[in-house]
Amino acid sequence: MDLQLAITNVLLIVLLTAPHEFSHAWVATKLGDDTPRFQGRVTLNPMAHIDWLGTVILPFLSTLFMGGFLGWGKPVMTQTSKLRGGLNGLLLVALAGPFSNVIMAVILGAIGAICEPAAPSLARFAYRGVSLSLYLALFNMLPVPPLDGSKILLALRIPSAIYIEIARAGFLVLMVLMMATKVGLWMNVWSYDGAQFIVDIFRHHPAV
User: Fold this and answer.
1) Structural domain of residue 44, as residue ranges?
2) Which of 8, 64, 129, 140 would disulfide-bridge 108, Cβ 3.0–4.6 Å?
3) How many DSSP H helices and E strands does the chain contain?
4) Is 21 among the residues known to form the active site?
5) With 70 as the cut, is the pLDDT of residue 208 above it?
6) What confidence tens digit (pLDDT) does each residue in 132-151 have?
7) Short-list 12, 74, 70, CA closest to 43
8) Candidates 6, 17, 21, 83; catalytic one
């Protein structure tokens, strides 16, 4: 059990959840759905996007006891009927979240490289954020409701009845994937390799 890592992961997911959910809300409003604006979700204030179970409790416990990571923010509500493009618009809204995680990984990589000479502890925190942000992007792309990747199924016009049945078992499916398969391990490896690539770019080219 690594208490320090568990606390770090919770702090980082709170930090990373805000731009992730904001991106969903912002794209939805740009596509014509004002629901996120009415619900106060078009903001970078983390308190508007925290789901206490998914953003704090579960990430802490999964890091501490499972050696992996499981977590999410408060879902942004959208109405497909209001979105330009319908289900295709819904897919764009969904993809905005993971895309924001990739952007945040790059930003944190730059921050880490800038801070490393004078503030190595802050740099380590930022570098951990790079890896976790990429991990969250990968995790959210899993095609399992309620994750963002599940909207790919809807965009492919899977019957809604089948999607609803999958959604009912979504949490159980995620737990099985993370605990009984190597999916979590693969995502760890890919996010670590991706983070190393980003960090190396800024370390070798600090002016970039």
Assistant:
1) 3-204
2) 129
3) 9, 0
4) yes
5) no
6) 999 999 999 999 988 999 99
7) 74
8) 21
